[in-house]
Structures are given as C-alpha cells and as structure tokens.
Amino acid sequence: MRNGDVWAFEDGGEIRGDVNGSGVVLGVDGGATSTVCVCLPLLALLSAHKLPDPLPVLARAVSGCSNHNSVGESAARNTLEQVMAEALSKSGSNRSAVRAVCLGVSGVNSSTDQERILKWIRDIFPIHVKLYVRNDAVAALASGTMGKLHGCVLIAGTGCIAYGFAEDGREARAAGAGPVLGDWGSGYGIAAQALTAVIRSHDGRGIQTMLTNSILKTLGLSSPDELIGWTYADPSWARIAALVPEVVSCAEAGDQIANEILVNAVQELALCVKAVVQRLCLCGEDGNSSFPVVMVGGVLEANKSWDIGKEVIKYIQTSYPAVHPIKPQVEPAIGAALLAWNYLMKESEEKCHR
Amino acid sequence: MRNGDVWAFEDGGEIRGDVNGSGVVLGVDGGATSTVCVCLPLLALLSAHKLPDPLPVLARAVSGCSNHNSVGESAARNTLEQVMAEALSKSGSNRSAVRAVCLGVSGVNSSTDQERILKWIRDIFPIHVKLYVRNDAVAALASGTMGKLHGCVLIAGTGCIAYGFAEDGREARAAGAGPVLGDWGSGYGIAAQALTAVIRSHDGRGIQTMLTNSILKTLGLSSPDELIGWTYADPSWARIAALVPEVVSCAEAGDQIANEILVNAVQELALCVKAVVQRLCLCGEDGNSSFPVVMVGGVLEANKSWDIGKEVIKYIQTSYPAVHPIKPQVEPAIGAALLAWNYLMKESEEKCHR
C-alpha cells in the first residue's frame, strides 16, 4: 500500500453503512484550500424519484488541497486517497461496497489532467467501480441542480469561472484562466483594481478614493508607497482577494471608484455567463427558454446592501429574462456524489436498452 | 575583505588612469538583469563648460543583477562591489583616486532602501569619497540630460515608471508599482492584455484577433487552453513582456484588438508623464514652458511603423506643446557618473560660499 495505512480499517471490520447491500457512492470536491468527500447510500437515492430531504449522508471527511498544480502529483494523489478512505471508514463501509466515485477537482483543465487522476483512482478501487473525474466547477453546478448537468454555474471566489452544459451534453466554459489572463470579476481581480486605484490616486493619475484609508488601515500600513512592498512580499492570490470586503464597504459608503470597480466586476461576471449561455444556446432558439444559473463563491454570497450576486443576475436578465438563479442548498461534494449516481444510472439504462 | 580578492589589484600596482591626479568618478546603473559601472576622469569633466564628445570613459564593467528584492542583500552588495572594483582595475586606477560614486539602483523606493545601500558602499571607500544612491530611473534621466536633474524620464521596458525633477529639486514619480498594481503601459502590461484578448476570444467573451495565431505560433502551442499552463509555469515578468513584438506586428497588420491595446498603453504611459509634470509644474505657470522628457526602454525604442514612443510624445504634446523629447545618446551608467560629478561640484561650490 503506497499511502500508509489508510485502508487498514477494512481488515476484519463489520459493514454497517451499506445496510441494504446495494452499495454506496463517493463524491469528492477537491479545491485550492481543502478537499471534501461525502459517502451516500445508493438505495436511498435509487428508491425515490424525488430526492429525500435531507439527503442521507453516511459520512463526510475533510482534508487539504488536492490541486496538483499547487501541491504536486504525489501529495494530491495521497490527499484524495486519504479523504476517500476516511469517508468510507466513518460510514462503516469499505471499498467493496463502492459502486461509483465522482471527483470534481480544481486544476482539471484538459483530458490529460483528467486521465492522470483517473489512473491514480483506478489503482485504488476494484475494477467494477465506476470512476468520473471533472473540473470542480462541474460538481458546483450539480450541487445547485441536485445532480442534473444542465445550465450554467458561476463561481466567484478568489478566482472566477463560468461552466455550463446543454441538455445534449455539450459543455462550455469562460474565464477560470487566473489573474494574468484577465479574470477581472474574481475576488483577486476586484482587490487588485482597488489597490491600483490607491496607487493611481497617490501618484496623481487618479482621483481621491476612500479605498486609500480603508485599505491602509486594514493592512496596518502608513503610506501607499508601502503597498508595493506588501503586494510583492507574498504571491498568494487569496491574500489579495481578502480585501474585497473593504471595496464593498467603500462602495456602500458612496465612494465613486469602489463603486466603478464593483460595477465593472458585475459586468465581467455576467459576460462570463452570457458567453457560456450563447455558445450552448441554453436560452433556446427564441431566447426565452428558462435555464438555471447556479451562483457559488464568497464574492457572490456576501449579502450586503451592495450585493454583487444580485447585480450579476439583474445584468444577465437584461439579455435572458427567463434565467433561473439558484443558490445551492448542499455543498459541491454532494453535487459530485449525485453526479456519480446519475452517471451510474445512465450507464445501467444504456446497458438495459442494448 | 568580505568579498574575496576583488581589491587585490590595488596592491603595488602603478596608477595609470588618473593621469592628472585630480581623481575619478564612478557611475553605476543597477538594473533587474545587469549592473554596469563606468569610470570617468574628473579633470576632463571639470575643464569644459561643454561636455567633451565623446566622453573620455576610462573603463566599463558589467555584472549581474543588483536589485536586493530579487537576489537578496548579500548578493546585491557583492555584485555592486565587484563591478566597481573591476571598473577601477580596468581603468588603471584605485579607490584612493575616487572622488565620488553615484549608484542608480532598481528597487530603491524609500529612504530605508537608500540608507541600506549607502551603508554597504560607505564600508568600501575611504571616508572622503562622496556617495550618492538613487533609483535607477534617476540615472536614466541624467543619461538624457547629460547630468542635469530637470525634466521627466519615462522608462517602459518589462515594467514602466515616470520620474521627474523640478529646477528647485522637488521630485515626483508615477507608476513603477509592478503588474498587480496597474503598470498597464509596461511591456508586461501590453503582453498580458494581449494574452487576455486571446483567452476572451477563445471562450466567447471577445471578438476574433490575429493575436491568437501569432502568439500560439511564437510559443509553439496548439490551443488557447494551453496558454493557462504556459502562463503560470514561470512567474517571470520578462517572459510575458517578450511578447510585445507580436502585439506590434498584429497592430501593424490592422488587427483591431492589438491596436486598441497599444493605444491604451500609449495613453497610460502619457498619463504617467502628465501626472509627474503636473505635480512638479514642469510646464511653468502658463503651461507653455519647455521641459525635457527622456524616453528609455524597449517598448519606446522599437522603431516600427506602429511607434509607441512617437505616439506617447504626440499624446503628451496635446497637453504640453513645448515638451522636448530626448533619446539618450549615452547609457544610464554614464548618467550616474555625470550625476556624481554634478553632486560633487555643487557641494564644492556650497563649501566655497560659506
């Protein structure tokens, strides 16, 4: 066993979780800061046309980052294996009960990324277990649609991405390319524009803004000159993005520059969704069909009087009045588990019809 | 001696360079990629109201990076000491002949930075040697004005900065804050906007552009998706900035997006100069006084049919018709040496008048 004793619990333990013998599914949400795995019983899902509320989650486990771009392949692989083992152990189940696993992992941008992770997971489970690897945005979409891959998800946290599926399975994405490549609607993008506004105001290229006092106070600095050293002392995007609440506060207090930055971010985020909707023709031929837009991430969740998420929806509605905004009631790992179940059902159905 | 045997040449060698016994000055230009030191005889400079052409450069030495933010303090200090020792040795002179040293070093953004480097250099030279430490933009300005600190310099290479002096000694700068803090007129800024345009065109947020084929071909990539991996594989700003020629070529071929990016860069660079001119009132009370603007760096030097430097001047002229653009005929290290001489003369004059 390459990853220590993570599967030692399987030796001789009784099986409690898989009470009906119909097996379990695992859903994994692998993000930039943490990785979550949930274990759901297959029978409960199978037995209802409508999903039970609340969902019968057998177990939940949390571990660190599993983005191979950040922590390297070996650490990412070990994190994924460990979090799945812990969820199975906690649920009183084991690998022989697993029917399907779906992993939504950040940093999966190509089929090469997908195949590499599939290969890691293939070595862990018995051959009959169905495995699915997707970008973490796909799990986030499924968390809003309860497993159905239709519509568009918009994630705006430290980064931002829009990812969508048509009913026929076609998919498209916009943004998600990082700060150098223009994710201006992201938390990082908003905060970097605010820092820039402070520098421009200081050196005479821009008008005065409340952002100067607000940001200097938050960071404990005495002059905008010191922002240069602060910015380049640590390349972490999340450290910059953490300044978004200052921008929202200044905009709420009536600051023109902060307001412009947020208006610009709203337009950028709406443009990401519109690009996906248009390419997939989610609004139908007449442009009036309804489609879900799942809204995820700190930038969209902050429910202040300057509500970025609400403004994004308003902006999308000007083009697509029938858009149906959704705030997910479950976490992305559950979305991944529901995807695993859906993929499994689809394959069984296809088998039956052959 | 802390820095090996760099001063060993002084033991028992004859003095050839300082033929008149009036001493020499050293000028150092410490940049992000290399450090240059030149040694000039003081007499030749003293004896002429008009500077001799060509300048009697006794020696020139080149070493690596001396930006303490990049290579650390110890390496930066050793590089500076080594390059000065080499220039003195090559000139057939030694430290006892040095009257003044001026260092223009990148990364000097505060009096703390200045004092740290002064302390290093103070330990190297006899106590009577006059020492001056400035941002490398100051040496670049002096290279265009042949030592006079009046007017504004605009540097646009990988980064960009505008730095100016009024006749009364007041100084001001704009930009020079790096890519996160909005140096959009820099080579990095131009290239990052071009890469962003390729991604936006690819995912449906932007119109088609020739930049896509041009940049993918230059980088040997087959799809815009691969740009994400390429961009984050190496954080070097210079690697991104190296794409500027592709943007210029596409603009010259009539590409709308490339043209817009360059027009935007021109406006940003002109705005940097205008901010400095306005704060220092370089154009006089009536706005019609002449003042020099020294133009330095690869982005301004590229003498193509789409000439960024020429357009920047045109743009500045709309506000300040009497602006006097200068392309330096000597390198920044010579500018630093002329500054050393000017500072020295000023101090001698002040002494005489006491």
From TrEMBL, chains A, B:
> Which family does the UniProt entry place this protein in?
Belongs to the eukaryotic-type N-acetylglucosamine kinase family.
Q: Which InterPro entries does UniProt cross-reference here?
A: ATPase_BadF (IPR002731), ATPase_NBD (IPR043129), Euk-type_GlcNAc_Kinase (IPR052519)
The record's Gene3D superfamilies line, in alphabetical order, gives: 3.30.420.40
Where does the record place the ATPase BadF/BadG/BcrA/BcrD type domain?
Answer: 26-340
EC numbers? 2.7.1.59
Q: Which GO terms describe its molecular function?
A: N-acetylglucosamine kinase activity
Protein name according to UniProt:
N-acetyl-D-glucosamine kinase
